[in-house]
Structures are given as structure tokens and as C-alpha cells.
From TrEMBL:
Gene3D superfamilies: Aldehyde Dehydrogenase, Chain A, domain 1, Aldehyde Dehydrogenase, Chain A, domain 2. It catalyses: an aldehyde + NAD(+) + H2O = a carboxylate + NADH + 2 H(+). GO terms for biological process: aldehyde metabolic process; response to abscisic acid. It holds the Pfam family Aldedh. Keywords: NAD, Oxidoreductase. The active site is at 219, 254. It comes from the Eukaryota. This is Aldehyde dehydrogenase. GO terms for molecular function: aldehyde dehydrogenase (NAD+) activity. The keyword rRNA processing does not apply. Residues 6-442 form the Aldehyde dehydrogenase domain. Belongs to the aldehyde dehydrogenase family. It comes from Zea mays.
Amino acid sequence: MDAEAAAAAAATAVEERERLRRSFASGRTRPAAWREAQLRGLLRMAAEREDDICAALHADLAKPLTECYVHEISLVISSCKFALKNLKKWMKPRKVPGGLLTFPSAASVAAEPLGVVLVISAWNYPFLLAIDPVVGAFAAGNAVALKPSEVAPATSLLLADLLPRYVDPSCVRVVQGGIPETTALLELQWDKIFYTGNSRVGRIVMSYAANHLTPVVLELGGKCPVVVDSDVNLHVAAKRIAAGKWGCNSGQACVSPDYVVTTKSFAPKLLESLKRVLFEFYGEEPLRSPDLSRVVNSNHFNRLMALMDDYSVSGNVAFGGQIDERRLRIAPTLLLDVPLDSAMMKEEIFGPLLPIITVDKIGESFAVINSMPKPLAAYLFSNDGQLKQQFERTVSAGGIMFNDTGIHLTNPNLPFGGVGESGMGAYHGAFSFDAFSHRKAVLDRSFLGEARARYPPYTPAKLAIL
Ligand code: NAD
């Protein structure tokens, strides 16, 4: 990008931010009626433009229609409905007990919009990850600059076209583009930055935010482990692991299982069951299956190939491994006993490869997980109550789930966010509202309740009263 283009990106960023600032300053975003109208607009957009959204997602990722609807559109619809149902409750100031030292007084905690917020979203669920934070930002009464991912250009273009038609165009601006455009936005002061993406860029976002003391939510990724005990319903477990992996954008999902840990003795049974399920799901020619997304682009395809071609890993393919480079397809692939120091076990895989690590005793799996950075999600398949308790106590992750994968994020009563390397802050349901609100302390005193000891001159007699 030359200097002229960089200057243009910077000018656009300033212009859009100023426009949003003026709209927010006008006070229009504060009333519940405005917020409800925006949520209804987003709801209508998701429902009315389903075909266009699916077409864009298909162009960007060859995402199967069912996944487009169930994993993106319907989740946006549920988010909007949940926010509409609860908005008045969320907006209401919360009364809290007045303190003894402030007696008599009325105390409350008021939710205040932050102002003008920047949402930067990722390519893998490019509709959901762009709109879901906007639901929270609007519910909380903010104006929003949205920067969709350039890696999903069809969805980015569609969002730029649709959003201003369905919601107040003076309070949402979609800025398209890549790193230079995102950088131009990051150089400005915002009232919050909500970033979804990888942790390398998360660090960049946070360092820009530090210049303005801008608070951030960082929705990052990581290696999500799945521990499988031997007492499980194996077929159900295998189906749920496969659905969370290949059934979620071919493993290009932040909560997809990244690796499995099981015992040496149980691994062959689990492997057989996973193979059977993969055959049931995708048939004999998975590269031709319409139910598997493709790898998003050749950069990511080459990255995944490099993980597979690593000399320490290439001999460990236990199933799959077929590729179609031209169509950016990789068949569901299982690898057994991949070394923990291989790149495949050091980096987030984010694709259709699933290594299986074996340990002598299932309890040892916790040490494997804890030897790596904290993941966004961690899963345990087991019927053993004690093992579950131990997992919950020992494993730190954004969220944990027993006996399933991925779908914990559909519960709007649970916060969705990472910890440590997988991010900071959370959203979904009321947590989205909170993420985009300031909790303002409000104390209302009367003119009664004068304590003379408070005022100078501080005499021994006054001190004695205290
Ligand atoms: P991406 O390449 O789409 O990047 C995300 C955003 O960051 C884009 O809008 C892009 O313009 C911007 N960006 C990229 N490089 C930049 C730079 N150098 N400076 C400034 N801005 C930059 O997405 P990605 O990072 O490849 O997404 C995949 C990652 O996101 C995975 O790690 C995944 O686990 C994580 N993820 C997390 C969640 C979650 O909710 N926690 C959801 C989806 C994906």
C-alpha cells in the first residue's frame, strides 16, 4: 500500500468515526425505542436476506447450507430475540443497599453506553462474528464501526450493502479492507474495541488500544482439547466430536476440537468409531461431499499442508489425508500419537486435521492440556463424576463442556470468551450488553444525615464520636 492509499484509509477512518461520534453525541442511541428498532432491523435482515447471506458464505467458504443457517443466521436471530426480550431489564438501574457511611442515601448501578465502539471480526463465521457483537453494542446504546474480515470478501461486501438498509445508517459504518484499513481504524480513539481473531493480531490490537486507554474484548482462539474416557457411549461421543470438528466449517471454528487425548488402550476403539462416523457423514469420497466446507484460501491450505508434511507427523496419518489443492479441500484426517513438540501440537490447527494423543491413564490428560496455553474451550467425554469434577477444577479454559463439543456457545445464559492466551472479556446474552456498557455508580443523598466529625477542624472531641 502506497502512502497515498494509506492517507486515504486514514482519512476514511477519521471521517467515519467522526460521523459516528456526532450521531452518538446527539443522544439518539440512548432510548430503549432506538435500541429495539436496531435489534428488530438486524432480525429482519437475518430473516429476509437468508438467501443472500447463504450465497455469500458459500462463495467465501463453500459452507454447507445447513451450517450457514444453523451456525450463523439462526444464532443471530436468537441473539436479537433474546436481547429484545431482556433489553428493558438489562437497561434498568440496579438498586443496591445504601452504605452506612452514606446514610441516608439511595444507591444504584446504572448501565451507560460506552459511546462509539469498533468491532473487528474474523473470516470463519463472517456473518455471525460481525453481527453478534453489533447486537450487544446496539442493545447497550452505542454507535458502531464494523470492520468485517477481508478474508471473507463476499460476506464483507454484503454486510456493507445490507447493514445501512436495515439499521440506522448514521450509527453503524462498515469499513471494508485489509490490514491497512484496520490499522487506520486502530490508530484512532474508540470507546471500546471488540476484536475476534488470532492472538498474534490480538496483541497488535491491544497495543494500539493502550495508546488511548481503550478497553478491549479479545475473542481469540487456541488449541481446544477433547479428553475421551473409556466409559463413554462411543458412537455418540464420536458423532459429537466429528460434528464439532468437521461439521463446524471443516474445523475452521474457534471452539472446534483441536486434538483428542485418550488412553493407549482405548485409542484403537475411538479411532475405529471416528472412522465409521466419518464414513456415515461424508461417504467414501469426502473431498466431493457437499457437507464439508473448503479451506478458506490457499494461504491457509498451505499452512495446513505444512503441518501435515512436518517429518515428525507425516507417518502418523491414521485415516484420511486426501487433498484437492485446486478446490482447497482436505478430507477429514485423523493422526495418531503426534509428538507434543511438533508444529501440529504447538499451533492452533484450525482445519480438518485431528491428532489423537495417547496417555497411560486418563488422569494424565490434564497435565497434557495444562502444558499448553489456556484454550477457548475444553471438552471431556466421561460418565465418571469424579473425573468430571477433577477436570472442572484442574483445567482452565474459556469454557468447558462435558460429553459434547461446541454447542455450549448457543446458551445465551453462559458467557462466551477466553482466558489467558484465548482472550479476555466475554459476550452473548446479558454478557454482550455488559461488554458494551459502563456500570456507573449512582449515589443519591439527601441533605439530612450530617456528621460533624467529617468536617475540619478535626478536634479530639469529634474523633471520639467516631
Ligand atoms: P482474520 O484474518 O479475518 O483477521 C481478523 C481481523 O483482524 C480482520 O478483520 C483483519 O483485517 C484484522 N487483521 C489481520 N491482521 C491484522 C494486522 N496485522 N493488523 C491489524 N489488523 C489485522 O482472522 P484470523 O485471525 O485468521 O481468525 C482466525 C482466528 O480467530 C483463530 O485463531 C480462531 O480461533 C480465532 N477466532 C476466535 C473466535 C472467538 O469467538 N473467540 C471466533 C472466531 C475465530
